[in-house]
Amino acid sequence: MLDLHGYGPRLLEGAGVTLQLAVLSLALAILLGLLTASARMSRHWPLRQLATLYTTLIRGVPDLVLMMLLFFGGQMALNVVTDALYDRFGVDWYVNLNAFAAGVITIGFIFGAYMGETFRGAFMAVEHGQIEAGKAYGMTPWLVFRRIRFPQMMRHALPGLSNNWMVLLKTTALVSVIGLSDMVRVAAEASRATHEPFTFLIPVAAVYLLIASVSEWLFARLQKRYNVGFGGH
Amino acid sequence: MPDISLWFQELLAGNVIFTPTTLGYYWDGLVTTVQLVFLSLVAGLVLAVPLAIGRSSRHRWISLPIYLYTYVFRGTPLLIQLYIIYYGVVFFDGIQQTFLWPLLREAFYPALIAFTLNTAAYTTEIFRGAIKATPRGEIEAARAYGMSDALMMRRIILPSAFRRALPAYGNEVIFMLHASAIASVVTLMDLTGAARFVYARFYAPFEAFLFVAAIYLCLTFSILYFFRWLEKRLLAHLRPQG
Q1: CATH number for the domain including B143?
Q2: Is the ipTM of this complex over 0.90?
């Protein structure tokens, strides 16, 4: 039953690619989001401007266009850099941007902008007195961040974070367009080859639903954990 | 006007990529994108209103199938929905004999159907949230006036729900504009399709995609400001007085 005209194993591999891609881009997006949120709340206005520009531009342009720009343009830009290195310093170094790395970088970069907005709102929701109390204890800024700001911020950020994750998961389907063999690409290829689109596309849709349902459950548990001490909600 | 067109021609004369021909592709792409997004939004809205009312129904046999529909369409990528409709439409028995076939054979109509069903699912949930948030007092007042359910829905619940739904719906419109870029995957020459064509023709990713990104950015901001203006007008009663 799982053979699917011999496409079964490749589809399974594709599902693995989708999951890896989604999880790695999520990690990158969270990192970029934290940086962006910090930059937007920074005392230095160039940093604030830069972060605002990043979030505004990224959120104003379709994911697919950004993906193509970074994927097709990224290799060209890399080539320019490596060529210059060769000409100037004789460094023979060639980087081939593979589709998976390009996918992770692009999706992480796009969702970093959304995460930045989520985290900014959440950081602002943490009471100032909490941070002052941390300082009063003689904590370093990093320790204040790690022990006080981050855990309390997460409580406010989780609903937005879970929403972003759901959108990110669905966005990974777009990498099939730039040549990455995720499950959508395998299913589309198989549909064209066998003229049985439903056989391949519906199971793939079901896998997305499954991942979404499992993550919903996980996020509900996380929410419970970060709400410890805040009664019920 | 003549000096402006002269200036424009001079600008184009020194440019290999942005010739009148490629700008024409971008223009056609813009028209296709706007048509696709506008038509699917209108059709999605028309579908979403009754679906949202049904979704808020107390009867589970009405609300459950609608919930299933919105869950599936919101939980799976639009690209898959587009593929299923684009590749799957052939398999409806006898469809090739009907008058619909010449339309469905083109990529435009399958894309339109996929986008409509997708935006209808999101819009249904947005409206359902807004309907659920109707203040109890408004409903009680309507009941006290002896309004029937249908009259109350038409005169009290829906108008106030629409206004509450406005900010979220504005986001949905922008989301739809951005999602429409995937129409280029099924060979449709929308804005992104035009950019892909120009990229392939001149091997110039930066020019091709940055230009189209700028167009999308302008469209996004136009929608954003339009909804801000609309909110200002329709939600005036919620702003602090004085």
Answers
A1: 1.10.3720.10
A2: no
